[in-house]
Amino acid sequence: MTEKNRREMERQAIQRQDREREERRRKEEMERRRREEEQNRFRMQQIAIDKQKEKQKEEEIRISRLNDAHLDELERKQREQSQSQT
Questions:
Q1: CA–CA dist 10, 28 (Å, integer)
Q2: What is the pLDDT of residues 30-64, one digit of tens each?
């Protein structure tokens, strides 16, 4: 093998290593972005779930207060009715 051939093979090997390194870097970057997007989607889903649970809890409280008010009204009417009968 001549010196010229050896240098050419070394140059090609370095170029191949550079391409492989760049390809690995590109794949790692794509994977990092994919993971980041996945985490963002998960966070957004969790926020949506939390908001939905909060709205449901608020609705349950609202209904409970309405029920309490209705019960209070029924009890008042029953008291009035029982007082008017005596």
A1: 27
A2: 999 999 999 999 999 999 999 999 999 999 999 99
